[in-house]
Design goal:
This protein has 466 residues and is an alpha/beta fold. The termini are far apart. The strands form four sheets. It has a nine-stranded mixed sheet with strand order 6-5-7-8-4-9-10-11-12, sandwiched between helices. Strands 15-16-14-13-17-20-22-21 form an eight-stranded mixed sheet. It has a three-stranded antiparallel sheet with strand order 2-1-3, with no helix packed on it. It has eleven helices and 22 strands. α2 packs across α3 and α7 packs across α8. Plays a role in repairing double-strand DNA breaks, probably involving stabilizing or processing branched DNA or blocked replication forks. It comes from Nocardioides pocheonensis.
Length: 466
């Protein structure tokens, strides 16, 4: 008997293109849920048709209509690369309650204050709720229009009626199209609604800002293609216990992606912080054991952050290693380096390391500051309030150079610090000191030399060090 031909694949994953003969809830290739849909019937080859606009030499393309205009919020303009670009599609994502709606309402009010018409579409709240927030934050403007809609057709109708320069949709997961299968927030709905809004924004030269939800692991909810459709992807971050909020650019077709904007969120609204350098420094005036100041880079902006450590003796067979705001894996590595190369043995001590003010110190350049804070807490001797430490520790105890050292030192000097321990630029400069930006900069090549220069070693530690 002749063999039967295998059935053709009737279903395909929207994310990775994996094919199957029957519908499944989870893609067998990329493991994404809800992305397997039925394939449409193959169409005939497309024929040439009329063009919307003629092709021109690139030098003759006008750029006046695509010049960025200020949003009225300097920190957001800094992240966007100059401001809001007409026709641009911006996606702002963040945790629930972090302040996304408050920030965009402030942007909408400031844009309307410059006599640019703004349409704010809310699908999560009623119009009255948004009006109450605008009353509290001072966002009542004549050119700011508000609509509570969840249907795509109604949103497009509002755009036709108001003809805004800025359209804010809060959020993309709440808007649905009646002629598209799936529930609001589903993969198909989000993709089709976003594509329709972006097409409209490009056609009418409207700046479009979409609010996006995030999943429990912090990634943007919905299909991955959503991030490819938009021009700018922003992440809004912040701890619930802190008023500080940060906007980071993950993707930006109009500017850099290594910028960060800082905001202060309170009951009166959200305010841009143009100089956030001293936010993470303790206001204590006297020197305290177990503290050290690090200089981290958030994007291109240097921020001074204080690291605190507490070391206590324990009788437990498994000492505790507790961290807050720092990477626990790096702290464990630093403890091993201190034991192996500096003779600081903490296997019978509980170690607690924390950053001040909710700062997240994930950059390797903070290694030396963490190490000095731990040793200071262990010995009960303060470093002093005028010392900063910059450098990445290697597994052999060496101090590695970090990027933008001059920018970090300049910021430390501006904040009034007087001394800095930094990685040596060459073997000939080890132990030498020089004056930069008002700082006495000391070059060190390893963690043991740094402890020796700061007077935090003794004869017993030298004998224990291999």
């Amino acid at each position: 008997m002749a063999k039967s031909r295998p059935a053709a694949a009737a279903y395909q994953c929207n994310e990775c293109g994996w094919e199957t003969t029957k519908w499944v809830g989870r893609c067998g290739e990329c493991q994404a849920w809800g992305t397997v849909v039925e394939r449409s019937a193959p169409r005939s080859r497309a024929q040439a048709g009329p063009v919307t606009t003629p092709a021109l030499p690139i030098g003759e393309i006008p750029i006046e209509d695509s010049q960025a205009r200020t949003s009225g919020v300097p920190e957001l303009d800094r992240v966007l690369g100059g401001g809001l670009v007409p026709g641009a599609a911006i996606l702002l994502a963040g945790e629930p309650g972090v302040g996304k709606s408050t920030l965009l309402l402030e942007v909408a009010a400031q844009t309307a204050r410059y006599r640019h018409r703004v349409l704010y579409v809310t699908g999560e709240e009623s119009a009255a709720q948004v009006r109450l927030r605008a009353d509290r934050t001072g966002g009542i403007q004549d050119e700011l229009y508000l609509a509570a809609e969840t249907d795509l057709g109604a949103v497009l109708g509002h755009v036709e009626a108001t003809r805004p320069a800025l359209l804010v949709v809060d959020s993309i997961q709440t808007i649905s199209a009646g002629d598209v299968d799936g529930v609001p927030g589903g993969v198909t709905q989000v993709k089709e609604v976003a594509a329709a809004l972006i097409r409209m924004a490009k056609l009418r030269n409207i700046t479009l800002v979409l609010v996006g939800h995030v999943t429990k692991d912090g990634s943007i909810a919905g299909p991955r293609v959503l991030e490819h459709l938009v021009d700018v992807v922003l992440h809004f971050e912040g701890e619930r216990s802190s008023r500080l909020r940060m906007v980071r650019a993950v993707k930006n077709r109009f500017g850099p992606v290594d910028e960060v904007g800082c905001f202060d969120l309170s009951a009166e609204g959200i305010v841009a912080i143009t100089d956030p350098t001293g936010l993470f420094l303790d206001a204590r005036h006297g020197p305290v054991a177990g503290t050290c100041v690090a200089v981290a880079l958030e994007g291109r902006r240097p921020l001074l952050s204080e690291v605190q450590a507490l070391v206590t003796h324990t009788s437990s067979e498994r000492p505790r290693r507790t961290t807050s705001g720092v990477d626990p894996a790096r702290v464990a590595m630093i403890l091993a380096i201190l034991q192996q190369h500096a003779g600081i043995r903490l296997h019978q001590h509980d170690v607690f390391v924390s950053s001040v003010g909710g700062a997240r110190l994930t950059e390797p350049s903070n290694d030396l500051a963490i190490a000095l804070a731990i040793v200071s807490a262990h010995r009960g001797e303060p470093l002093g309030r005028q010392v900063v430490a910059i450098g990445e520790l290697g597994l052999s105890g060496e101090l590695r150079r970090v990027r933008d050292l001059g920018v970090r030192l300049a910021e430390a000097g501006r904040m009034g610090f007087r001394a800095a321990a930094v990685p040596a630029q060459s073997p000939q400069t080890v132990g030498h000191s020089r004056i930069m930006d008002g700082l006495r900069v000391v070059d060190v090549d390893n963690v043991g030399r740094a402890l020796e220069i700061l007077g935090m070693t003794d004869d017993e530690a030298r004998r224990e060090a291999p």
